[in-house]
Design a protein that fits this description.
The protein is of the alpha/beta class. 30% of the residues lie in helices and 25% in strands. The strands form three sheets. Strands 16-15-14-13-7-12-11-8-17 form a nine-stranded mixed β-sheet. Helix 8 crosses helix 10 (317-336). It is globular and about 60 Å long.
Length: 346
């Protein structure tokens, strides 16, 4: 017996939506991309033509209120995430929201409250993708005590030489990105899968490329989002974590995460997992068993949840709130010079 088709509307068909989400949904049976709404009619029409989407909306509210739409994929910049999510849930639509979840923790909590008030609807955040292939192996090794006692964590999100000439991007404008800073929340979400959340953070950062020209107006714009950031976090598991997220590290090593234990070290870099134990001379490749190897299946997981086959695992709104609280705590620490405790109060 054929399943009822799930009809999806897209609000904001940016690069990741076109590269990942649209092909992902189109590869699934009994799923139809029914409509699209971008920032302009012209860009909406271009996406619709490229991917064979039948309807173009001039206003995202029309899509959300359309009874012909069952679920909404939100691919906008973060400044629209809470607004569209709250309206979509109110209208009885399932929601898949692009990371980063929201502009700040307050918005994230409002989104979570709205989702909890409508448990019959699926609410999912697009997960941090970097470590999907190794997450289960890292979790197993930690559970088995392979590292001994976990003592320290080092996460480096490294960019290249800073570009002082390119126009400012949405990631560098608080009005579009909120408290989200570079890839900090994305890496923190991956770390939460491995060891849990942080209890306290202290941060220091700076803006090096300032001012830059706005893509919208061509005028010089003051950049307020740091492009070089150091965060020290006390994790609930007892380890101390050091995050460095930077766009000023020319000729630096690739981005990576390292877990230092009393008996072993694990390093995740460029999709590979390396490990070594006390007495080894160097790190060696860690084999990932086939049954532990994860992969991108965001769209499939969302549809499975809508059909009631399995609950959302990556990423729940609850975990989205946790990483939004972390990114906001970092900004609060930057502004105050003080340590900020988690979870946030008030």
């Amino acid at each position: 017996m054929a399943l009822e088709t799930i009809r999806i509307g897209i609000v904001g068909a940016g690069g990741n939506t076109r590269a990942k989400h649209i092909p992902g949904f189109q590869a699934l049976d009994d799923v139809a991309l029914a409509g699209v709404c971008n920032r302009s009619r012209a860009s909406s029409a271009a996406v619709a033509k490229t991917f064979g989407i039948p309807k173009v909306y001039d206003d995202w509210r029309q899509m959300v209120e359309d009874p012909a739409i069952d679920a909404v994929m939100i691919g906008t910049w973060p400044y629209m995430h809470a607004l569209v999510t709250l309206a979509a849930l109110e209208a009885g639509k399932h929601v898949l929201c692009e990371a980063r979840m929201a502009m700040n923790a307050r918005e994230a909590h409002a989104m979570l409250a709205a989702a909890r008030a409508r448990p019959q609807l699926v609410a999912q955040v697009v997960p941090s993708p970097f470590s999907l292939g190794v997450d289960r192996t890292i979790q197993r090794l930690l559970a088995e005590g392979w590292l001994g006692r976990l003592l320290a964590i080092d996460i480096r999100d490294n960019g290249g030489f800073i570009d002082m000439e390119s126009p400012v991007s949405w990631r560098q404008e608080i009005r579009y990105s909120g408290v989200n800073t570079m890839m900090l929340g994305i890496w923190y979400e991956a770390l939460m899968r491995w060891v849990g959340a942080a209890e306290r953070v202290v941060a220091m950062g700076q803006v090096c490329a300032n001012p830059l020209r706005s893509e919208d107006t061509g005028q010089l714009t003051a950049v307020q989002v740091p492009d070089h950031l150091d965060v020290i976090a006390r994790m609930a598991c007892g380890a101390q974590a050091h995050f460095r997220s930077t766009r000023v590290a020319g000729l630096c090593a690739p981005s990576h995460a390292v877990l230092y234990g009393s008996e072993a070290t694990l390093r995740f870099e460029s999709g590979r997992l390396l490990g070594g134990r006390r007495g080894d001379e160097r790190l060696k490749k860690v084999s990932i068993p086939a049954e532990e190897a994860g992969a991108w299946r965001v769209e499939e997981e969302f549809i499975d949840a809508v059909r009631g086959r399995a609950p959302v695992q990556l990423t729940t709104f609850e975990d989205g709130v946790r990483y939004m609280e972390f990114t906001e705590a970092v900004i609060r620490s930057l502004k105050s010079g003080q340590a900020i405790h988690l979870p946030l109060g008030g």
